[in-house]
Design goal:
seven-stranded mixed sheet, four-stranded antiparallel sheet
Length: 114
């Protein structure tokens, strides 16, 4: 079955960096677009970044220039490199893909605080 497992979250100071990973299994990873979403307390889940099957990317305006999404098809893993982190980036970050329906990982907490 499809599984998405995120890792790499944690507590970081403003201006710091983190790299999130999402390990995928149960489907042909190289054929699927992959996305990162986030949900802050009291807010709706929002798209952060997306990478298509050929490496094309798009980003939320709030993270452009600071975050980079990438994928390693051999490792079946998608990454989110987050630099210049701000307190407003604090959220649970989720990995998502779509195969007839949506699939989500369990999420990883990112907290940006001094």
């Amino acid at each position: 079955q499809v599984q998405l497992v995120e890792s790499g979250g944690g507590l970081v100071q403003p201006g710091g960096s983190l790299r999130l990973s999402c390990a995928a299994s149960g489907f042909t990873f190289r054929n699927n677009a992959m996305s990162w979403y986030r949900q802050a307390p009291g807010k709706e889940r929002e798209l952060v970044a997306r990478i298509d099957r050929v490496g094309g990317t798009n980003y939320a305006d709030s993270v452009k220039g600071r975050f980079t999404i990438s994928r390693d098809n051999a490792k079946k893993t998608v990454y989110l490199q987050m630099n210049s982190l701000k307190p407003e980036d604090t959220a649970v970050y989720y990995c998502r893909t779509f195969l007839l329906r949506e699939y989500w990982g369990q999420g990883t907490q990112v907290t940006v605080s001094a």
